[in-house]
Amino acid sequence: MGEATAETSSADLMVDLIISLDGYASAEGWPGWWGLEGPEYLGWLEQEGEKGYTFLLGANTYRVMSSMSGEAAAEGSGFSKDEGAALTGLEAVPKVVFSSTLQAPLTWPNSELVTGDAVEAVRELKRTGTRPLSTLGSLSLCRSLLVAGLVDRFRLVVFPVITGRTGRERIYDGYPDVALEMVDSRTFDGRLQLLEYVPTVLNGPPGSQI
After folding, report:
1. CA gap 145, 78 in Å, rounded
2. CA–CA dist 99, 58 (Å, integer)
3. Would the pTM count as exceeding 0.90?
């Protein structure tokens, strides 16, 4: 059985995703976080933003998150205090945006645009960087980095909803087989489940000669 684990590097990379129980990243007509974000989870998000990560994201996630961050900073935004703090706090965090369609300079503070190959750019960031790296949304980027063997941690927050009719963006479509070793878990607000793993990309089922 062939397999690949994350390459040794100075800066660890974590793929960080939110997901419905049936594997979707979002759902049509549902609010953000499926309307289930609570104070414990939002407080944890704010704390995570203070851990020194450099966030990696694609163009679509950049557009959505920069817009939400700007809205949260405005008066009468409709976001709760905890939601607003989690979103506006992203302005101060270093971000690397991979896109062939966006143009520099990017308007969201502390955002660097990379127009070349994302996998090679992240490989170089891992080799030379000293800050931990984490993805922000960006499903296709997450998939490419995992396939390339660059991911050190694979973290999910599972939301207790099934959106079989309205679900959008199936997270695992196009993924290889992956073995996961759990290294952390916890529950937020009595309903959201965090699961953190060390991933190993497999070339075939265990025991196969593929």
Report:
1. 35
2. 6
3. no
